[in-house]
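Aim 2 progress update. The chain analyzed this quarter is reproduced below.
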Amino acid sequence: MKNILTLNSISPVINNIFDATYKIDNDVTSPIGILLRSFKMHDYEIPQSVIAVARAGAGVNNIPIEEYAEKGIVVFNTPGANANAVKELVITALLLGSRKIVDAIEWTKTLKGKGEEVGKLVEKGKSNFVGAEILGKKLGVIGLGAIGGLVANAGVNLGLEVYGYDPFLSVTGALKLSRAVNVVKNLDDLIKECDYITIHVPYIPAENKGLINSGLIRKMKDGVAIINCARGEIVDNADIIKAVETKKVGRYVVDFPADELIGVENIICIPHLGASTPEAEDNCAVMASKQLIEYIENGNVINSVNYPNCEIPRTTANRILVLHKNISGILNEITGAVGREEINIESLTNKSKGNFAVTILDVNNEVSNEAINHISNVDGIIKVRVIK
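Predicted structure tokens:
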């Protein structure tokens, strides 16, 4: 029996994914894998039996991914599984940033108890909540990945003139974009043109903390609406508050409330609802579960955030999976160690990313514990598994 520990409530659809050889619960002992959503693992004492962690969601700020890489624990996420849910919230935020819907609803609540006067008061007071239409306006999308690409295409369908910026745009991502999306090479080219700007990049503290700050905001159009359903830290809160108060920014709609933002006029805080739909939770749970199973049973690494993606079809009954440092000559050392054990390699694949690498070898022989020890003794090896 292979135990899977759940650290959050996970959609019950996973029971249709794992077969009877797995036990999934929140109190299993010696788990081989962990499934979670938002559980903070930085201070968590992870069981030594764990070989993989799968997050049912895209962001992995709650997981110490580098530390786990050093321990030979592969961390997976589920990019794109909740993309449609976030896209729909962004479209909602776009309209909230253009029309004074929230303010108007709150004002309408004050009319409770006015009886037959309500109709007349509505007609008299609605002029205080005039907004703008989005048709024909310019929308800037920063980041054209799974979510940003959907948002850009939806913007085109809504009649907006859409600009996109992504220095890491993949070929697959580019092919999914509408031809009507204007992809620009420089961020400045986007921000100076657009009436609405929406952010869809992963939060990397060393690279984009406070990306949207006073310097960048000064280059934007007066009255721009900014939408942040990516991560709160990407926008400098102090700078955005000043920009809203001076009317440089017309509206800031954020899915990550912070104390200093709550209650500020023309800042709308949504309580992190981006992926809060049953459909998104199901999609994320299914993807995370399948990736975990594929790694446990076949050693294939799909959508890892701390190791390179590496997969190959099984060609033999015995497979050796090696997680190791990405250092010169180590692949020759691995194959040499396998060869010295008189193990015949049928097929091999090797992938690297940053400091870490994955090597998968399908072999024709049984692999002894002694052989595993010899491979493990190669300098730079982190973990060796034999999968039958």
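The chain has three domains: 1-82+276-306, 84-126+135-269, 308-388. The mean pLDDT is 96. These observations will guide the mutagenesis experiments scheduled for the next reporting period.
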